[in-house]
Amino acid sequence: MFCNQCQEALNVKGCTRNGVCGKKGEVADLQDRLLYVLKSISFYNLKAREYGLNEEATDRFVLDSFFATLTNTNFDKQAIESYIRRGFEIRDTIKAKLPEGALPARGTLPAVATVTPENINEMDVAIHSTQDEDVRSLRELLTYGMKGLAAYAHHAYILGYKDKAIFEFIEKGLVSTTDDSIGVEALIGLVLECGQKGVSVLALLDKANTETYGSPEPTAVNIGVRNNPGILISGHDLCDLEQLLEQTRGTGIDVYTHGEMLPANSYPAFKRYDNFAGNYGNAWWKQNEEFEKFNGPILMTTNCIIPPKESYRNRIYTTGVVGFEGLTHIYEKEDGTKDFTPLIEQAKTSKPPEQLESGTIVGGFAHEAALSVADRIVDAVKTGKISRFMVMAGCDGRHKERAYYTEFARALPKDSVILTAGCAKYRYNKLDLGDIGGIPRVIDAGQCNDSYSLVVIAQKLAEAFGLEDINDLPVSYNIAWYEQKAVLVLLALLSLGVKNITLGPTLPAFISPNVLKVLVENFNIRPNTTVEEDMKILLG
Ligand code: FS2
Ligand code: SF4
């Protein structure tokens, strides 16, 4: 096993025996093979597209199984093996449909096209099979960006929103990582193209979410508990939440969000459920301790599961692309719906959740809500009431050095405003940082899935101030990353020309010194240091 795809890679190098995240070596190796099967599917499907022979089921399979390899998503050996089996079947079906002459002659096909269930175990498909350090680094950067792309495209797909250009790009990108004729320059181009596709996918997902569930509204979200049994839902899948709310309506069971599901409390479509009780706990990495105290069943919808403790193992469920050995998985039915009866029945016999905290936190400032107060924001900047916006979006994680983000938020001047999205917010969203003339000092646009809102807000501000270059705005970026959705969001920002991003708590282990040089020279990316030092730099 070798995996270095997330910020918590062992010693900022890579996990080699078992993952810091809990992923077993065997599962990591299977995920490498699954990735190679996806490359093989892509090789043939690009051809199938040329002949108009692509099938939608292939798009869905590629998105789902690619998503399954994200950090904290699927730890289940059998699930990954089944993706590999199904992947080979899909690949062979595509291959069989291609007309004569569509492919190069036998014997001239690349290895990726000839892989079989029999020979894959003998092939070296691990990260270090690419010898050149810079090519390897760029292949990884592209692959992890595309994992984020696949995950966001999956979220949109579930709601019926699709973009063929994104599916095609993923296939092209996957195949390019197997092609030794594609060198450093071309790979940099693909990485930037991945960022552009990132902007498109985030825009598509924003459209999917807001057209389906309405535009989020500023909302004071309850963080205490009620006296009914509850079901806790975590991850990012709003469609799962909708079905869960519908199925628990009138049962006396409350539904609470955890981690990245918090922003769901601000959607009009969900606010109308009386049993939608608020948010319980904090970011993903605190689940061990918080799930124990919740007392009721827990549903993990996407990339936020960590190995469960015995104390709540019998009441944690997976669904969609999530998997963990020994847990009950709620499958999608033929008609695309899900039946959450097992959780509902268990909730009926559960005690109400133990209270962790009380009060409310304010969320719901996606672009529409933020722009509805744009005049006041622009005015506050012009009259000097707001001196700077600090984008502190991204991820939270278990490492102690992330306390930096709490201290940084606390140390910011009182006339600055934090713009956030993603679970990084849990490091400061309960600090009570106050407001500036009614504008909250933490403007929370939502999940990492809602990062598009930050882009729209920045673009509208640039327009309001008559600025051509987004970098001339009084906006600084101090971003925290953890996993591959964040890699994609970072590439999306770079593709929009955003410069001078401070990134932490450590730089990605997969970035080679030369690739870092390219990022520094072109975008002036820098690692975070100390609160004092970074404050000086970021406040200009
Ligand atoms: Fe939290 Fe970071 Fe959202 Fe993940 S914002 S760890 O990418 O998908 O969560
Ligand atoms: Fe290690 Fe992160 Fe890979 Fe898990 S996802 S094995 S923690 S690098």
Q: Can you walk through the features of this model?
A:
Belongs to the HCP family. Hybrid [4Fe-2O-2S] cluster binds at residues 236, 260, 304, 395, 423, 448, 483, 485. One of its GO terms (biological process) is response to hydrogen peroxide. This protein is of the alpha/beta class and 540 residues long. The chain is 44% helix and 11% strand. The protein has 19 helices and 16 strands. The chain has helices at residues 25-50, 56-67, 77-97, 111-114, 133-158, 164-176, 184-213, 238-248, 268-271, 287-294, 310-313, 341-348, 367-372, 374-382, 403-411, 451-464, 484-495, 513-523, 531-538, and strands at residues 219-222, 230-234, 254-257, 276-279, 298-300, 316-319, 328-330, 360-363, 388-391, 416-420, 435-436, 439-440, 442-444, 475-480, 501-504, 526-527. A 6-stranded parallel beta sheet has the order 4-3-2-5-6-7. The protein has a 6-stranded parallel beta sheet with strand order 13-10-9-14-15-16, covered by helices on one side. α2 packs antiparallel against α3. The longest helix has 30 residues, at 184-213. The protein is globular, with a radius of gyration of 23 Å. The two termini are 44 Å apart. The model has no long low-confidence stretch (mean pLDDT 97). The site of FE-S-O hybrid cluster has 14 residues, from α17.
